[in-house]
């Protein structure tokens, strides 16, 4: 018999990964994955930049490199964040990781002892829960509304629960709910956390995908004590296949991330880091991002319009001002896992909401992604789901 480590008892296959295997079929209208629109990937430009990297510094690009990441790229990322958000970061505060997902795993490895408590939004990103669970923490949910974590409830938890190690947050266009924290909630949250010796992980892969309203400062911008660990990513604003994310943190904390990265994979691919870095020299990343925003706004509109027409009256859904997802709450008698089975037979897919609640619940909820399908497919897919809901209700 194969004897696995005890921690593997907590590591389960993600519903979404399993689902994506089916939704790959071309006939499927999928609102399931968190996939960016592939037709917007800058393939031609990347082809050009890749050749330029090989010609100008091919040997260096293909050699082993430093664990922290390619210096000029770290500097550009720090500079970009400072310019956009008013943070005060230098290259020394930034380490390149293999997608922000690696940053989440390292966070668990560095900070969590078995039984430590993590607080998170309810619901929250399934991939983070799965990464943290390997380290056997207790995960407690903090109730949220449309403006973010409810601070009075958070304060009650902070004052009554022992061993809280960190708070995991996604303040911008949250996965799965699409909601964003208001400016007041951000400031209030940081005030509440000041001097408490609790770390905050700010996971921000969607921040730059705002297509409505004003940009809001990240929690990191309020962080004078150095307790916010910011996870950034180029996956949703550039392309996920490059696997470029970053951890931005206080230098002393970042040293620990460097140590675990050495053990995990020595460094992120130097070749891709140089390609991105040169891309940022030759092109304006913001131009690519503004194209993406325009397309996603139209797709969001198409989805919300279709939901208002096709889903039963009284269905609750979020109105995301950016990002990739909207979140639906159906009548409480509808189980969205059963609904999914019906929908897959009609070649349309979504993700049931339950796995996004670490302690269960949300059986009548679902996450819908709108970035990966053209508007006509969105309209068609929502019509199909609406019909399936109607049939379930009438049964
Ligand atoms: C909230 C959140 N964090 C992190 C990730 C991981 O992104 P990546 O590893 O591609 O940067 C995702 C991906 O969907 C996400 O939604």
Summary of the model, kept short:
The chain has about 400 residues and is an alpha/beta fold. The chain has helices at about 15-25, 45-60, 70-85, 100-110, 125-135, 150-160, 185-195, 250-265, 270-280, 285-310, 335-345, 375-395, and strands at about 30, 95, 115-120, 140-145, 150, 165-170, 200-205, 230-235, 245-250, 315, 325-330, 350, 350, 365-370. Strand 3, helix 5 and strand 4 form a beta-alpha-beta unit.
Structural description of this entry:
This protein has twelve helices and 14 strands. It has 395 residues and is an alpha/beta fold. The chain has two domains: 138 residues, Alpha-Beta Complex (Aspartate Aminotransferase, domain 1); 240 residues, Aspartate Aminotransferase, domain 2. The strands form three sheets. It has an eight-stranded mixed beta sheet, sandwiched between helices. Strands 10-11-14-13 form a four-stranded antiparallel beta sheet. Strands 1-12 form a two-stranded parallel sheet. Helix 10 runs parallel beside helix 12. The N and C termini lie far apart (47 Å). The mean pLDDT is 95. The chain binds pyridoxal-5'-phosphate. Pyridoxal-5'-phosphate (PLP) binds next to helix 4.
